[in-house]
Amino acid sequence: MGFWDALLGRSKPKRPDLDQLFALPSAAITLQAGAGFTPTGTGAVCFASVEGGAFARLQQDVRALLDADTERGGIPVGFSQDSYGYTWLLVRHAPDEDGAMPALVNDLHAVNTLLEEAGFGPQLLCSLVTFADAEQRPLALIYLYKRGTFYPFAPLPGQGEKRDNGLELQVRGLLSGDLTVEQDLSRWFPVWGAPGLTG
Fold this sequence. Notes:
Layout: H1 3-8, H2 24-35, E1 38-47, H3 52-67, E2 77-81, E3 87-92, H4 100-120, E4 124-132, E5 138-144, E6 149-153, H5 165-175
Antiparallel strand pairs: 1-3, 1-4, 2-3, 4-5, 5-6
Helix pairs in contact: 2-5, 3-4
């Protein structure tokens, strides 16, 4: 930080600590043991929209990166935009495949690194990994880049834009030893319509 930045109270934006994503496989084990939620094999990255040729190049680069995994013939990946204009990149793995959760986290980390290196770091908003229990209740663990923290999001299926606050608080308690959980509940933003997460 420069002298004028310090004097005027400005600070440089904190770089996202993408390595925190590697704590998710351990958290998934805790979540399954403590609440019965298992990974669905789906993860997503959300970023502010990128337009035109830059977006087309970004799609090609991400597909090339994930298709380099020739053991499985490439990883299914999709791009979409939500009603708020944010871009979502969705990655899928077979949930019952050995090592699916670590592989999914590796892919999300690789995609985020690629976006950051391509100059889209400031546009990164969050990553999420989805889970479901025996009753098919959906749950996501969301990583906020700018905060370096995780929080749970549990939409209530078939009830519009309502969420299961009790479950979210239960998950916070379960995972406080595995993840850096966001303490400010006002930052537990809902991600209605996120791909891979019904509700």
